[in-house]
């Protein structure tokens, strides 16, 4: 699940302040679990943006 989906769900359920805190804690916890169990790192926003890129789109690399 992507971080923005988790963020939206926590905001919707808990409100802005508690949702942002819970989302940040959840994403950090997920990063630690991935790092220590599978030796993987979370992708940064730019990496995630290009990971599922549409091959027909030629402008987002220039815009980034």
Distance between the termini: 23 Å
Mean pLDDT: 78
Number of helices: 4
Spans with pLDDT under 50 lasting ≥5 residues? none
Radius of gyration: 15 Å
Helix content range: over 70%
Shape from CA axes?
A: flat
Summarize the main sheet.
none
| Count of all domains | 1
- Beta-strand portion reads under 5%
**Total strand segments:** 0
Spell out the key features of this protein:
4 helices
Brief characterization of the structure:
The chain has 64 residues and is mainly α.
Helix and strand topology:
Layout: H1 3-14, H2 16-38, H3 45-51, H4 60-63
Explain what you see.
It is a single chain. With 64 residues, the protein is mainly α. It has one domain. Helix 1 runs antiparallel to helix 2.
């Amino acid at each position: 699940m992507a971080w923005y989906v988790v963020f939206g769900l926590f905001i919707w359920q808990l409100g802005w302040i508690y949702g942002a805190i819970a989302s940040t804690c959840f994403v950090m916890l997920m990063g630690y679990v991935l790092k220590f169990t599978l030796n993987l790192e979370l992708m940064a926003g730019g990496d995630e943006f290009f990971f599922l890129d549409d091959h027909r789109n030629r402008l987002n690399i220039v815009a980034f």
